[in-house]
Design goal:
The complex is a heterodimer of chains A (256) and B (325). Chain A is an alpha/beta fold and 256 residues long. Chain A is 27% helix and 31% strand. Chain A has one domain: HUPs (Rossmann fold, 3-Layer(aba) Sandwich). In chain A, the strands form three sheets. In chain A, strands 11-10-9-12-8-1-6-7-13 form a nine-stranded mixed β-sheet, with helices on both faces. By secondary structure, chain B is α/β, with parallel strands linked by helices. Helix content of chain B is 30%, strand content 28%. A seven-stranded parallel β-sheet of chain B has the order 7-11-6-1-4-5-12, with helices on both faces. In chain B, helix 8 links the parallel strand 17 and strand 18. In chain B, helix 3 packs across helix 4 and helix 5 runs parallel beside helix 9. Classes of the chains: A alpha/beta (256), B alpha/beta (325). Bound molecules: flavin-adenine dinucleotide. Flavin-adenine dinucleotide binds next to helix 6, helix 7, strand 17 and helix 9 of chain B. The site of flavin-adenine dinucleotide has 28 residues of chain B, from helix 6, helix 7, strand 17 and helix 9. Chain A: Its cofactor is AMP. Chain A: Keywords: Electron transport, Transport. Chain A: Belongs to the ETF beta-subunit/FixA family.
Chain lengths: 256, 325
C-alpha cells in the first residue's frame, strides 16, 4: 500500500508566544511535529506493518523542517519529501494545498493521512482542500481505521458523537486524538533514519509558478490578547468565600 | 458596495443551531445592505426557513434531496455548488462546527477561493471587512482579510451576537431541486453520545470537571450546581480519559470549543489544550486545591480548595439567592 502522511512543523505546544515586527517571533522557539500529525504518522506505520507497502512523509516548509521529517523517519516512516517553499512571501492554506496537489498528481497513492488541525494556525483546511483538488473522498477527525482490500471502515468523532463510515481507497483522512498512541522514536530508529531517503523539491522542480499559488487571504495584524487582570483569588472562611463569589458573579461580573 | 451573501443553515437533531443565526448576523456585516440568502439542505426544511427569515435572512433557498437528510461531505458540497451556481454570491458564511470544518475547505478548493476559518469577530473598515481569529491555541489573535473574490468564512459558535428575532419578518422561500449522486462515503451508523439538553458550544453557563472530580459519582455535585444555574456540564480530557464521563463532554482543542458567559472549572489543571477550548469565555471561575494550577492564570475568580467542599456550598448559595430574586 502506498501510504503518505502530510505533516507540519509547528511551535511546541508549551511555547510562549511573543510578537516581533508585527509577526509571531520565531527565533527562540522549540519546534515539534504538529501533535495531530503524529497520530497520522503512527497510523500509517501500523498500516504498513499490517498490509505492507511504504510510508512517505511530506511537508511543505523550509530547510528547517528536515528535523521534523527525520523524526518521522525515526518513528518508522520509509521516505521523506521536503517541498521547500521558502521563496514564497505570502502563503496560506490555498497555497499549501495547491503545492501538495501538484506533488500528489505525480504520485501513486492509496491513502493520504494528516492531522485534523495544526496547533499553530488552527484552520484544518489543508487536508480537505487537498482531497478536493485530487478528487478523492475524505473523512475528517477519525478515531478508528480498518482497511480490507480497498474497502475502508472508519469511526469519526463528530462533536462527541461517533459516526461509523464506509468508503474506499484512494482516500484522505485526518486524525483526531484517540486514533492511537504515537510511538517515540527509538535509538536504533534514530540511527536508521539518518540513512533513509529525504528528498528536497523546489517549487521549480514541480513546475509551480509563484503567481498560481499566491495566497487568497492576507494577515494584516497579529496581536496578543489584552493581558487579563490577575484574577481575584478569594480568601477567608470557605463559607464567606462562596458567598463573596456568588455576589461578585451577580453584581460585578453580572453573569448570573 | 453591497454584496449578496449566502449562509448555510445547520440543523442538528431537528433543530436549527444558534450558530446559523450568528452566521446571518456576520453575513449582514459583510453584505453591507446586500441580500442575505439562507440555504437549508434536506427535505422538510420550510419551517426552519421561516425561522431564518425571522433572524434576518432576506430569502431562503431549500436545497432538497433525500440524500441530503443526513450530512455527507460529497452530498453537501454538490448541493452548495449548485446553489452557488444559481445565486452567484459574493460572500459565504458557515459555522465553524464539525460540519463547517469538514466541508468548507473542500468547497473553497473547488471555488479556488480563500477561506478564513474560526472567526470570532469581524469589523468594517471602509469597504473592507476584517476578520479576527485565534491562533496558537488562543495564545494570540490575527486579523485577516480576503484579498479578492468570494468572502468565505466560518464563524466560531457563541461569539458573534445574533440579530434580534423578529417574527414579523417575511421573505421568499424557494425550493431548488438539486442533483446529488455518487456519495463516496456512506454513514452506516451514528452512536449518539452527546447528552440531550443544552449543546455545550451554545451554553451560556458551563460547569466543567477534571481529573480532580475523581469518579463518575464525583460529577454529581457538578450536575447539581449546573441544574440550579441552568448550565451544561463539560469536562477536561483528563476526566474523559479516566472514564469519569463520556468524551462528548470534552472541552478543548480536541473536544468542543466553548465561549459561555460563565465557565466554572472544577478540579481542572488548565493545560494549554484545555485552555484552547475555553479561554475565550467571558468570565472564568476556577476551583482547585492547588494554588499553583495554571487554570488560575486565566481565571477571573478563584477559590483554592477541595471541590467537594466548595461546589455543594456554591449550589446552596445560588439556590438561596436565585430563589430570593
Ligand atoms: C494532542 C493533544 C490534545 C489534547 N486535547 C485536549 C482537550 O481537548 N481537552 C483537554 O482538556 N485536554 C486535552 N489534552 C490533555 C491535556 O494536555 C491535559 O492532560 C488534560 O487537560 C488534563 O486534564 P485535567 O486538568 O482534568 O487533569 P490534571 O492535569 O490531572 O489536573 C487535575 C487537577 O485537579 C486538581 N484537584 C485534584 N483533586 C481536587 C479536589 N478534590 N478539589 C479541587 N481540585 C482538585 C489538581 O490540583 C489538578 O490541578 C490534549 C493533549 C494532547 C497531547
Amino acid at each position: 500500500m502506498n501510504l503518505f502522511v502530510i505533516l507540519k512543523r509547528t511551535f511546541d505546544t508549551e511555547e510562549k508566544i511573543s510578537i516581533a515586527n508585527g509577526a509571531i517571533a520565531h527565533d527562540s522557539a522549540e519546534y515539534i511535529i504538529n501533535p495531530y500529525d503524529e497520530y497520522a504518522i503512527e497510523e500509517a506505520i501500523t498500516l504498513r506493518d499490517t498490509h505492507g507497502g511504504e510510508v512517505t512523509v511530506v511537508t511543505v516548509g523550509t530547510e528547517e523542517s528536515e528535523k521534523e521529517l527525520r523524526t518521522a523517519l525515526a518513528m518508522g516512516a520509509d521516505k521523506a519529501v521536503l517541498i521547500d517553499a521558502e521563496e514564497l512571501d505570502h502563503s496560506d492554506q490555498f497555497t499549501t494545498a495547491a503545492i501538495l496537489a501538484t506533488y500528489f498528481k505525480e504520485q501513486e497513492f492509496d491513502l493520504i493521512l494528516g492531522g485534523n488541525v495544526a496547533i499553530d494556525n488552527g484552520t484544518g483546511q489543508v487536508g480537505p482542500r487537498l482531497a478536493e483538488l485530487l478528487d478523492i473522498p475524505q473523512v475528517t477527525t477519525i478515531t478508528k481505521l480498518e482497511i480490507n482490500g480497498t474497502d475502508v471502515k472508519i469511526e469519526r468523532d463528530v462533536e462527541g458523537d461517533v459516526e461509523k463510515i464506509e468508503t474506499s481507497l484512494p482516500l484522505l483522512v485526518t486524525a483526531q486524538q484517540g486514533l492511537n498512541e504515537p510511538r517515540y522514536p527509538s535509538l536504533p530508529g534514530i540511527m536508521k533514519a539518518k540513512k533513509k531517503p529525504l528528498e528536497t523539491l523546489e517549487l521549480d522542480d514541480l513546475d509551480i509558478d509563484e503567481d498560481d499559488v499566491e495566497a487568497k487571504t492576507k494577515t494584516i495584524e497579529v496581536y496578543l490578547p489584552a493581558k487579563k487582570e490577575a484574577g481575584k483569588i478569594l480568601s477567608g472562611e470557605l463559607n464567606d468565600q462562596v458567598k463573596e463569589l456568588v455576589s461578585l458573579l451577580r453584581s460585578e461580573a453580572k453573569v448570573i | 458596495m453591497s454584496k449578496k451573501v449566502l449562509v448555510l443553515g445547520e440543523v442538528r437533531d431537528g433543530e436549527l443551531r444558534n450558530v446559523s443565526y450568528e452566521a446571518i448576523a456576520a453575513a449582514k456585516e459583510i453584505a453591507a445592505g446586500g441580500e442575505i440568502v439562507a440555504v437549508l439542505c434536506g427535505e422538510g426544511m420550510s419551517n426552519h426557513g421561516q425561522t431564518l427569515l425571522h433572524y434576518g435572512a432576506d430569502r431562503v433557498v431549500l436545497a432538497e434531496h433525500a440524500l441530503l437528510n443526513e450530512y455527507s461531505t460529497d452530498g453537501y458540497v454538490q448541493a452548495l455548488l449548485q446553489v452557488i451556481d444559481q445565486e452567484k454570491p459574493e460572500g459565504l458564511v458557515l459555522g465553524h462546527t464539525a460540519l463547517g470544518k469538514d466541508m468548507s475547505p473542500r468547497l473553497a478548493a473547488r471555488l479556488e477561493s480563500g477561506l478564513i476559518s474560526d472567526v470570532t469577530s469581524l469589523e468594517k473598515v471602509g469597504e473592507e471587512v476584517i476578520f479576527t481569529r485565534p491562533i496558537y491555541s488562543g495564545k494570540a489573535f490575527e486579523k485577516k482579510v480576503i484579498q479578492d473574490g468570494l468572502i468565505f468564512v466560518t464563524i466560531r459558535p457563541n461569539n458573534i451576537p445574533p440579530l434580534e428575532l423578529d417574527e414579523s419578518r417575511s421573505g421568499d422561500v424557494s425550493t431548488l431541486s438539486v442533483d446529488v449522486k455518487d456519495l463516496r462515503t456512506i454513514i452506516k451508523d451514528v452512536v449518539r453520545k452527546a447528552s440531550t439538553g443544552v449543546d455545550l458550544s451554545e451554553a451560556k453557563i458551563i460547569v466543567a470537571g477534571g481529573r480532580g472530580v475523581k469518579s463518575t459519582d464525583g460529577f454529581k455535585p457538578l450536575q447539581e450546581l449546573a441544574d440550579v444555574l441552568g448550565a451544561a456540564v463539560g469536562a477536561s480530557r483528563g476526566a474523559c480519559d479516566a472514564d469519569y464521563c463520556d468524551y462528548s463532554l470534552q472541552i478543548g482543542q480536541t473536544g468542543k470549543v466553548v465561549t459561555p458567559d460563565l465557565y466554572i472549572a472544577c478540579g481542572i489543571s488548565g493545560a494549554i489544550q484545555h485552555l484552547a477550548g475555553m479561554s475565550n469565555s467571558k468570565v472564568i471561575v476556577a476551583i482547585n486545591k492547588d494554588p499553583e494550577a495554571s487554570i488560575f492564570s486565566v481565571a477571573d475568580y478563584g477559590i483554592v480548595g477541595d471541590l467537594f467542599d466548595v461546589v455543594p456550598l456554591l449550589t446552596e448559595e445560588f439556590k438561596n439567592v436565585l430563589v430570593k430574586s
